[in-house]
Write a structure and sequence with these properties.
8 helices; 13% strand
Length: 462
């Protein structure tokens, strides 16, 4: 008896936590708002938008002049030699390594050209004037940003569904715990009642043993349900992106969502998928591939660019910088590039892009078909859950009434302990069926909302 009472005291406090601080109680809307700001996948998606924005700006930079500076120094190891086909006075002497003039005369009659040190610095600038491929790539860069934004939206939709499911799982775990706790308390009361009757010689030892066995069998279910609450809260904190050691709890119950179960399911038999994130991403990718095909085709078009260069050069035989004579040089020009032959490279690139476009169209068609199937599955689960809920409610009322009758009959000795245990088991199953029906409905509804692309509005909490 002492062991059983101790167990009852433990079960009476299933929500005990390691910390003395009271848990932070949050609603579903609070969980969604926290996740939208703290969830890692959402943060990564926002970073991807930022990255795509920088890539777009980098692509537009190609329209502006590209200016580069340069500087070089060259030390001559062996000078070039120039030979003349006619005789010049003084030819035939030795070479002049001092290099005072244009160069020395070699023993073979050649003239050394140049000086030992060559210095050069300058600027170059170039800018495209006509380049169809460049303009097309700018459109593709803008579509990359649009695709990143839609991917971020898809990540948010998926995260919202994950938070909803995790929140609902906590509520289901709590409902299950309450049911198993009630079963345990009923089993404990039946055991005490049977023990009293046994002491009064009105119940057999077999009845007492059965009552004790029923009580002991109820204990593991309570512990499992309590553990399920802890695990469900961990999962909720994980998808929210908060510290797993944070002490939180959720408010509400599954019964709060039972009112949302009653509406015309068949009004959504053929819903629109225009807000579905996956299809939107495929549509943007199709536009990108269409522009890629045009980009490859425009490789056949000529391009025109303008360039400018300015440089200063100095050639010396010493390192007296203050005496250097710098010679400026500048030029401006136009460059026309006309593609003529590439061995079929451009043609095959166009064909490759067209094949990719065809593949994407098939993927989009298959994705839409799978989404239609998923919608039908969600609607079917929701409709079945509504029917199960109605049946489970009736079953719960009947089972509770039967248990009350069996308990009263057992107290006056008109029914057996087996009848009482059977009634208790039927009540337990009916209660769990009610909670499971609500849970199945709201989880399917969350999946349907994600498939339809319904965004969570933080201002209206809808």
């Amino acid at each position: 008896m002492i062991e059983i009472l101790t167990m009852a005291a433990i079960v009476a406090a299933p929500q005990a936590v390691d910390s003395v601080e009271a848990p932070t109680v949050i609603t579903l809307e609070d969980a969604l708002r926290i996740a939208l700001s703290e969830n890692v996948s959402v943060k990564v998606a926002d970073k991807e938008i930022e990255r795509a924005g920088y890539a777009k700006k980098g692509a537009y930079a190609s329209l502006f002049p590209q200016i580069d500076g340069s500087a070089s120094y060259q030390r001559t190891i062996k000078k070039q030699v120039m030979y003349m086909d006619f005789d010049m006075p003084g030819m035939g002497g030795g070479s002049d390594e001092s290099g005072g003039g244009a160069g020395g005369i070699t023993p073979g009659g050649g003239i050394e050209v140049g000086r030992w040190n060559t210095w050069s610095t300058g600027l170059t600038a170039a800018m495209p004037l006509v380049n169809a491929q460049l303009w097309r790539s700018l459109k593709i860069s803008a579509q990359d940003v649009e695709l990143s934004v839609e991917k971020a939206r898809g990540s948010r939709l998926e995260m919202v569904t994950q938070v909803k499911n995790a929140y609902y799982a906590v509520l289901l775990a709590k409902e299950s715990f309450n049911v198993f706790k009630e079963v345990y308390e009923s089993a404990l009361a039946n055991y005490n009642r049977t023990e009293q009757r046994f002491n009064a010689k009105k119940a057999s030892e077999l009845d007492l043993t059965r009552a004790k066995s029923t009580l002991q069998n109820a204990i593991p279910s309570v512990y499992d349900a309590e553990s399920s609450i802890v695990l469900a809260l961990w999962q909720l904190k994980a998808v929210m992106g908060v510290d797993l050691d944070m002490n939180i709890d959720v408010t509400g119950s599954l019964q709060d969502y039972s009112e949302t179960m009653f509406y015309d399911i068949h009004s959504n038999d053929n819903p629109s998928l225009e807000r579905n994130s996956s299809l939107r991403q495929l549509a943007i990718q199709a536009e990108e591939l269409a522009n890629t095909i045009k980009l490859q085709q425009e490789a056949y078009l000529p391009s025109l660019a303008v360039s400018f260069s300015y440089s200063l050069n100095a050639m010396t035989n010493d390192f007296k910088f203050s005496e250097y004579k710098w010679s400026p040089y500048s030029a401006v020009g136009l460059s026309l590039s006309i593609p003529i032959f590439s061995g079929g490279k451009r043609l095959n690139q166009v064909r490759q892009a067209k094949v990719q476009y065809g593949e994407l169209e098939m993927q989009r068609s298959e994705a839409e078909r799978q989404l239609r199937i998923a919608i039908r599955q969600y609607l079917n689960v929701m409709e079945t859950s509504m029917q199960n809920y109605n049946a489970a409610q009736i079953a719960e009322e009947t089972a509770r009434k039967a248990y009350d009758i069996a308990k009263s009959s057992y107290e006056v000795g008109k029914s057996t302990l087996t009848d009482l245990n059977d009634a208790l088991l039927a009540l337990e199953q009916a209660q769990l069926s009610v909670s499971q029906a609500i849970y199945s409905f709201i989880v399917a509804k969350a999946g349907l909302e994600q498939t339809l692309g319904n965004d969570f509005n933080q201002e209206t909490n809808e």
